[in-house]
Write a structure and sequence with these properties.
Elements lengths: L3 E5 L8 E5 L6 E4 L2 E2 L14 E7 L1 H8 L7 E6 L1
Parallel strand pairs: 3-6
Antiparallel strand pairs: 1-2, 3-4, 5-6
Length: 79
Amino acid sequence: KNGVVLITMKKPAQHAIISTHGLKGKPLIVVDEKKMPADFELNTVNPDKIESITVLKDKSANEIYGDEGKNGVIIIKTK
């Protein structure tokens, strides 16, 4: 129900593998304040370029993103 964002890196230069286990549906992904398309793959984001990741769920996701946030929101800010 709560979901998990897991970033696993085998080598510093590799891309991250990000999984969202336990979620009812695919969360909305926002990168640098831009909503990504539904088919956007999180593992295309270079982890070395990530400044922060924020996960919104439940009421906070709905308040900010409306129905688009019903499955949660993953907000990525790059450097």
